[in-house]
């Protein structure tokens, strides 16, 4: 054995000992399925690689499952948001209230259509938009509320719906990470005038590539989204462009793959919820050590990630690394403090809960194929943090 292979073997062993945050074997069980799907699509006489019959069946499967009027598959969760904002007619002069903590698309899609994001602080524990903070920011220019379900918790949709109705606002539900969550009997994605899912790798029904869907009961909005996703064409007349659209189409390989993995989704989500319940039961007593688990329960929850708040977050992250547990910080900065979005926010603005979440949040591994032994190791490692 050469020195190089010995070194890489040693490195591989160390890597094997550490429980990764992003598992390298996420699609291992579905490897043959993926290769079969590539071959099926590639050799299908239809030779449709985007927006073919697999995509149509995938849309129909989700539509039926959600009991929604329309599901429109598109290129990503981010473009799903853009398509919704465009179809809702939002643009220059309009204000859209978004959470001050979350992922970049919450701000950049709003700015991208020429509207202005108005950042509302989040709840200090659930980390989703605080409806009181949102209400305080409503002005005559406000046209929409854009809450996002964050980490494992759905936003307070009943209160946000009341707020939207009272003030005549559009309610756009960023449910990108919450596929499978159900709040008060109603699925995530169906609470807003429109909702969306993302199928990027890390999301609750992630796949090996980019993809998303728009969900809506509004036939006019659905019709416009369908046109906008494919260069403004109506699906009947090729090369007749009714609207200034974009390219946000869905891949047939992803559609075929997701159609066949869909029956296993509920089981994978249940396993995630089971791991989350185990973590929360063990971590609840850690409050006096400055470590706060997410609120327990299953109503309005989807454990696409499991996120703690830790007063000494960076120390906890280092401690876990020493104990062979990889962890991840989503998101280390509040949105209005990002260089790209700060110019859109008031210079003297403060979002204390968002800023604290950016300093304290830490996500643990929670993928469904973690073994019970790995879950115990992660739990023990967190419990051994001296605080
Ligand atoms: C991931 C995510 C998106 C964007 O989805 P992509 O498919 O990555 O473009 C939008 N909103 C939220 C809350 C997300 O977590």
Automatic annotation (TrEMBL):
A Pfam family of this chain: DegT_DnrJ_EryC1
Claim: Transferase is one of the keywords in the record: yes
UniProt-recorded name of the protein: Putative aminotransferase
EC number(s) on file: 2.6.1.-
Domain of life: Bacteria
Class of this enzyme: transferase
Organism: Kitasatospora setae (strain ATCC 33774 / DSM 43861 / JCM 3304 / KCC A-0304 / NBRC 14216 / KM-6054) (Streptomyces setae)
Keywords: Aminotransferase, Pyridoxal phosphate, Transferase
Annotated GO biological process: polysaccharide biosynthetic process
Location of the active site: 203 (proton acceptor)
Modified residues (N6-(pyridoxal phosphate)lysine): 203
Family label: Belongs to the DegT/DnrJ/EryC1 family.
GO molecular function: pyridoxal phosphate binding; transaminase activity
PANTHER family assigned: 3-OXO-GLUCOSE-6-PHOSPHATE:GLUTAMATE AMINOTRANSFERASE, TRANSAMINASE
């Amino acid at each position: 054995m050469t020195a190089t292979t010995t070194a890489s073997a040693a490195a591989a062993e160390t890597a094997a000992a550490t429980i990764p945050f992003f598992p390298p074997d996420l699609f291992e069980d579905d490897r043959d399925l993926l290769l079969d799907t590539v071959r099926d699509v590639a050799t299908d006489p239809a030779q449709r690689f985007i927006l073919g019959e697999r995509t149509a069946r995938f849309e129909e499967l989700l539509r039926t499952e959600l009991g929604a009027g329309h599901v429109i598959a598109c290129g990503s969760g981010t473009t799903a948001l853009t398509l919704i904002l465009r179809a809702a007619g939002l643009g220059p002069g309009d204000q859209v209230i978004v959470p001050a903590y979350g992922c970049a698309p919450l701000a950049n899609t709003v700015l991208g259509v020429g509207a202005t994001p108005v950042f509302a602080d989040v709840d200090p524990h659930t980390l989703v938009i605080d409806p009181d903070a949102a209400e305080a920011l409503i002005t005559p220019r406000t046209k929409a509320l854009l809450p996002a379900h964050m980490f494992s918790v759905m936003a307070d949709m009943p209160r946000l719906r009341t707020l939207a109705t009272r003030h005549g606002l559009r309610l756009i539900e960023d449910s990108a990470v919450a596929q499978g969550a159900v709040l008060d009997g109603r699925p995530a994605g169906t609470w807003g005038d429109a909702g969306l899912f993302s199928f990027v790798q890390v999301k609750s029904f992630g796949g090996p590539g980019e993809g998303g869907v728009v969900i809506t009961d509004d036939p006019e909005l659905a019709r416009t989204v369908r046109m906008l996703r494919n260069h403004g064409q109506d699906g009947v007349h090729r090369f007749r462009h009714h609207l200034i659209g974009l390219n946000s189409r869905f891949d047939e390989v992803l559609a075929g793959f997701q159609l066949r993995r869909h029956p296993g989704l509920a089981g994978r989500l249940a396993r995630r919820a089971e791991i989350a319940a185990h973590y929360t039961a063990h971590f609840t007593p850690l409050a006096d050590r400055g470590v706060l688990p997410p609120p327990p329960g299953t109503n309005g929850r989807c454990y696409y990630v499991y996120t703690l708040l830790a007063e000494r977050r960076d120390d906890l992250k280092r401690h876990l690394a020493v104990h062979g547990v990889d962890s991840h910080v989503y998101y280390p900065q509040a949105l209005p403090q990002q260089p790209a979005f700060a110019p859109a926010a008031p210079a003297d603005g403060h979002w204390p809960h968002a800023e604290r979440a950016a300093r304290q949040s830490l996500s643990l591994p929670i993928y469904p194929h973690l073994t019970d032994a790995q879950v115990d190791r992660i739990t023990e490692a967190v419990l051994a943090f001296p605080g």
